[in-house]
Amino acid sequence: MSGAAILQATADGILMGGVYAVTAIGLTLIFGVMEIVNFAHGALMMLGMYVTYWLFTLFGINPYLTIPVSIAVMFIIGWLMQRYLLNKIINAPQHNQLLLTLGVMLFLENLALFVWSPDFRSINVPGLDTSIQLGVVSINKPKLLAFAFALILTAVLFIILQKTVLGKSIRATSQERDGASLVGIKVKNINAIAFGIGTACAGVAGSLIVPFFFTSPGAGAVFLLRSFVVAILGGLGNFWGALVAGLIVGLAESLSGLFLSGSWNDLVIYGIFVLVLLLRPTGLFGGGRLSGSH
Amino acid sequence: MLTINDLYVGYGDTLVVQGVSLDVAESELVSLVGANGVGKTTLLKTISGLVRAKSGEILFMGENITRLAPDEIVARGLIQVAEGRKLFPAMTVLENLELGAYTKEAHKQKKRNFELVFEMLPDLKTKARNMAGTLSGGQQQMLAIGRGLMSAPKLLILDEPSIGLSPLLTQTMFEIIGKIKEQGVTLMLVEQNVHHALGMADRGYVIEQGRIVLSGPAMKLLHDEHLKKAYLGM
Ligand SMILES: Nc1ncnc2c1ncn2[C@@H]1O[C@H](COP(=O)(O)OP(=O)(O)OP(=O)(O)O)[C@@H](O)[C@H]1O
Ligand SMILES: [Mg+2]
């Protein structure tokens, strides 16, 4: 095993970790605010991918410049989904919400199959297909950008939640619903906005993945399980936890791929997952309701 | 200021509030007293729009608010300090108070109300940076009242503010309520502590099994034979 190969695997792992973190942030936000386990997260990510794919393919817009569109479209979809679907059963037992998000996932995936066919589509952006050479290590540009966006997104969400009136009312609603109503917060609207923000995060994740992954109706599902692992490892509701957990999963994946064989990847990751949950059921860094202390 | 006409409220098929009528006039302190589980909190939740009435109406400053959403009711200055305090436990004392001033009207008076709250409840100032969830029961109740005052109440409704407090703190609590009254805030006080609650009120209502069974000037109620026997152990 050469030192260069280990360095390369480490770099790949860190970058992929950033990508996993970005896919998990929306999930962890939505859970932190509403305690909804959103199975549709992957499918929503997939919609974000198509937004970017089509804007690039039809109009030649740089994928990274499509992110604002992706945010806007996905925010609206998330807002509508919460307001007109999830909100109807907000007081129902948790498994009902779970089934509903599962239903939305199946619906969206099949809709995508119907509208866009099962084709695997990829884009080729001039200038993005080359790697950056850092000594013996080569850095994949789109993954580096995804990594950078993961950091930015985490910081931006953190600031929104901590410092803005909107963020404070989201946290207040997540901690004490009736208390929020009693100070005059429009709780229904806040939940829809929070879900919209979480969905917009899924959209950003989708847009960031398009330059290095196939866009297809099932693409979101590929990332969904990883997102769950990352979100839960980091402590549901904890953004910074998700970031660190993303890195752990990314590194575990690439290093186990190097030292063991490729088929060990998943075994190692889910092994870590089960172990952590056995030892620390709230994830590595604690989680739960958005508390603001992390 | 607040008028309730023949209000019925229930959960599922069971009626909890059964034909309550009452009113609170401007600048009054009205106490509503009653034992455990007779429907006091349910009545208050209905006033604040958290629970829907089955029939009857609630008027606030002449406007029918029976079907309004909680935030619309708060925006009109009808503020409730709820049972169980309903604080935001993982937010600081300061953030809790700030959120009290969430509505447009309250936001305008934020600075003045902060001064008022810190003057009236100085403990909150020293604890400003602490998480609400880490405060003692008494401090939490003070914070709940402080948050209510930040909302610029025209009518402030308190649901059992003395519950779980030591006799000494209970005394302090009622003194604070007295001070709030001096500020010209109209108050409705819901209590099981009949002696204290009627002792400081202008008028009172006694509720049993969802019905008002007695009402009148507080001093007169305190001398009522039934009330003395049932609530004051005399
Ligand atoms: N959400 C609910 N669903 C069903 N029943 C409820 C609900 N909340 C209260 N009740 C019932 O309604 C009745 C009145 O309760 P409520 O809380 O209004 O009484 P209370 O007078 O405030 O009592 P306490 O002095 O203990 O606070 C009780 O029998 C209670 O069990
Ligand atoms: Mg009660």
Q: How many domain regions of chain A?
A: 1
The level 1 CATH classification of chain A is Mainly Alpha
The CATH architecture of chain A is: Orthogonal Bundle
What Rg of chain A do the Cα atoms give?
Answer: 19 Å
CATH architecture grouping of chain B = 3-Layer(aba) Sandwich
Tell me the fraction of residues in β-strands of chain B, as a range.
25-35%
Task: Please tag this protein with its features.
heterodimer; A: 294 residues; mainly alpha; 11 helices; 70% helix; B: 234 residues; alpha/beta; 6-stranded mixed beta sheet; 4-stranded antiparallel beta sheet; globular; binds adenosine-5'-triphosphate; binds magnesium ion
How would you describe what is shown here?
The complex is a heterodimer of chains A (294) and B (234). By secondary structure, chain A is mostly helical. Chain A has one domain: ABC transporter involved in vitamin B12 uptake, BtuC (Orthogonal Bundle), CATH 1.10.3470. Chain A contains 11 helices and 2 strands, in the order H-H-H-H-E-E-H-H-H-H-H-H-H. With 234 residues, chain B is α/β, with parallel strands linked by helices. A 6-stranded mixed beta sheet of chain B has the order 6-7-8-3-9-10, with helices on both faces. A 4-stranded antiparallel beta sheet of chain B has the order 2-1-4-5, with helices on one face. Chain B has a single domain, classed as Rossmann fold (3-Layer(aba) Sandwich). The chains are: A mainly alpha (294), B alpha/beta (234). Chains A and B meet through helix 6 and helix 7 of A and helix 2 and helix 3 of B. Bound molecules: adenosine-5'-triphosphate and magnesium ion. Adenosine-5'-triphosphate binds next to helix 1 of chain B.
Task: Give a summary of the structure in a few sentences.
Chain A is mainly alpha-helical and 294 residues long.
